[in-house]
Amino acid sequence: MTTTPLTSTSPNTDEYEVKCIAFFGDDRSILMQNANGPCPLLALANALILRNAISLPKRAIAMGKATFSDLVEILSNKALDDGGERGRSADIEALV
Q1: How far, rounded to the nearest angstrom, does the alpha carbon of residue 34 sit from its chain's CA centroid?
Q2: Nearby residues of 28 by Cβ (< 8 Å), 6 or more positions away
């Protein structure tokens, strides 16, 4: 019996295409969905990008793609920065 290797025809779910758009006269780099279905992390990231609250790493913009790790890091840093000292608990401090 012979087996054939499994191949994936779906896009890499760990990477998101970066697209530059004009938004109220400013250029913004947003993330594009890589698979069908809702993606609340992308929606949150793109909303914050459009509000100029976060930006993608220059490396991601230059390469035209961002990784899931990039996305989680950016959103985590934003959440921790916005929380300030009052938002930090001993559990968060232990993880940082």
Answers
A1: 12
A2: 20, 21, 22, 49, 50, 52
Which residues are CB-contacts of 74 (< 8 A; sequence separation ≥ 6)?
45, 54, 56, 57
In angstroms, the CA 20 to CA 28 distance is 6
Q: Give tens-digit pLDDT for 24-74.
A: 999 999 999 988 777 899 999 999 999 999 999 999 999 999 999 999 999
Q: How many residues does the chain have?
A: 96
Whether residue 90 lies inside any domain: the answer is: no
Domains identified in the chain, total number? 1
**Measured distance between the N- and C-terminal CA atoms of the chain, rounded to whole angstroms:** 51
Domain span at residue 28 reads 15-84
Q: What is the pTM of this model?
A: 0.71
- Does residue 1 lie within any of the structural domains? no
